[in-house]
Model the fold of this input.
Amino acid sequence: MAWTWRFEKADGTETEPAVEPEEFPTQSDAESWIGEVWRELLEGGTDQVTLQEDGSTVYGPMSLRSASEADTGEAASG
Done:
């Protein structure tokens, strides 16, 4: 089993991430990684991510902008 992230623009089109993606042995490992690098991904042009297990969507898309707004306590201007 391989857990991976799909990196997307706001319109759902796939984009190249600013951080080198990995394959993870567990869902927890994948979620921990995204928690560590989401700011870099957002700054690099990724707006949302989708978690996949062996190519099947587990959940998402999940907005990275929502995480940014929650982190700062205010709406992101853009």
